[in-house]
Design a protein that fits this description.
Length: 200
C-alpha cells in the first residue's frame, strides 16, 4: 500500500471528520484495490474475477492515459475509497451524448467494511464531487452507473444529480445523469467558492 502523502484535496465532514484524495499508485496500491474490486459488494465495478496482475494492468493503463486519472480516497488518513475521473468526450461516453466544455466523468467505489458507518458513503461521494468542483474548469459532472444500481442512483440524487435517461454501453445499460456546480451547491449546501456566472 502506498504511503504517499501527496494529497490533492482535503475536506472535513461535519460528522465524520477528515477526508482527502491522493494519486493512486498502480503497483503499491494494487493489493489493496484487488480486495476492493473483487469484493461481492463491488459487483457493479465489473472486476469480480480480476486477478492481482489484472488490477495492476488496469490501473497502469489509467496512469498512462491522457484523459483518465485514478485516486485513493482517505478517511482520517486510512484508505477508504477509490475515485476516478475522465474526459467523457474522449472516453466511456463518446457518441452517447452531447459533451459540453467543462464536463468531467466520474466513478467511485467505497471500500468494503464489516462495520458500516451511517452516512459514510454519502460523505464519500460529497468529497468526490467537492474535489472535482475544486477545479475551476469543471462545470458539470457526468455519471453513467448501471440502471440496476438503485443505491447509487439515490446517492447521486442526494448530491444534485439529475437523470437524463438510459444509454446503452458495450458492457451495460447505464443511467446517464448530470450535476452542475450550482446543483451540487444547492443539494449539499457546500460552496465551491467558484461562480460560473451562467447555468448549463
Amino acid at each position: 500500500m502506498s504511503t504517499t502523502t501527496d494529497s490533492r484535496f482535503t475536506r472535513t465532514d461535519p460528522g465524520l471528520g477528515a477526508f482527502s484524495v491522493r494519486p493512486l499508485d498502480p503497483f503499491a496500491d494494487a493489493e489493496l484495490l484487488h480486495g476492493w474490486v473483487t469484493h461481492p459488494k463491488a459487483a457493479f465495478w465489473m472486476m469480480q474475477e480480476a486477478s492481482l496482475p489484472d488490477v495492476e494492468r488496469e490501473y497502469m493503463k489509467i496512469a498512462a492515459a491522457e484523459h483518465h486519472e485514478a485516486f485513493i480516497g482517505l478517511h482520517e488518513g486510512r484508505p477508504a475509497f477509490l475515485m476516478e475521473h475522465y474526459d467523457p468526450s474522449r472516453l466511456e461516453l463518446v457518441g452517447l451524448y452531447e459533451a459540453l466544455p467543462g464536463d468531467v466523468g466520474m466513478h467511485f467505489l467505497v471500500a468494503p467494511s464489516d462495520t458500516p458507518v451511517h452516512g459514510f458513503t454519502l460523505a464519500v461521494i460529497t468529497t468526490v464531487m467537492a474535489s472535482l468542483f475544486a477545479d475551476p474548469a469543471t462545470r458539470r459532472v457526468v455519471v453513467e452507473p448501471d440502471v440496476r444500481n438503485t443505491a447509487v442512483h439515490a446517492l447521486n440524487e442526494a448530491v444534485g444529480f439529475v437523470p437524463d435517461g438510459p444509454v446503452v454501453k458495450p458492457e451495460k445499460e447505464a443511467l446517464l445523469s448530470f450535476c452542475t456546480r450550482e446543483q451540487f451547491e444547492a443539494a449539499t449546501g457546500i460552496s465551491t467558492g467558484i461562480t460560473t456566472g451562467e447555468s448549463i
